[in-house]
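Following up on my earlier thread - several people asked me to post the actual chain instead of describing it. Fair enough. Here it is, all 180 residues.
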Amino acid sequence: MQPIAIAENIKDRFPEEVLDIREFREQVSVTLKKGRIVDICRYLHDDPSLYMDFLVDLCGLDYKGKKENRFAVLYNLYSVEHRHRIMLKAEVEESEPSIDSVISVWRGVDWHERECFDMFGIVFKGHPDLRRILLPEDWEGHPLRKDYPLKGPGPDMEWKGFTDVLDRAKRYKEFDWYQK
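Reply from S.P.:
Thanks for posting it. Predicted structure:
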């Protein structure tokens, strides 16, 4: 099935949820409201004619100052059996940066959602273990937000574990294997 036909199926089944359908360089994206994202993903996964069994990627987007809803969560979906793909983009407002987790549809989305939470601060409601995955638990802020300082948190907001990491690095230099 062609990606534009998949997008039309989504629009026919969930007309009140679809905000926009775009095609660019043979890739189709469907922009959605976030309210029924789990239902839409479940439909795409369970419908035998679509069978989107592989969530290729999930990532966050920050449109600070460009759109009404500052954030979006992007889902790249693929069907191994049918060899077709679609991209879903669910808009998330800045005042409440949260969206329902799709871990009940694709178990493998676990770490993708954690990374998006870590980097953008988007909360995935219903996720069984939503905690930082790339940065330490005591890190302040979300580095992929457009308002995050370019040079890091700064001297007044230095990460508390930074000196520990420097000390550990100095100790490792004593070992012969580290220098080779």
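Residues 3-137 form a domain with the Beta Polymerase; domain 2 fold (CATH 3.30.460.80). That should answer part of your original question.
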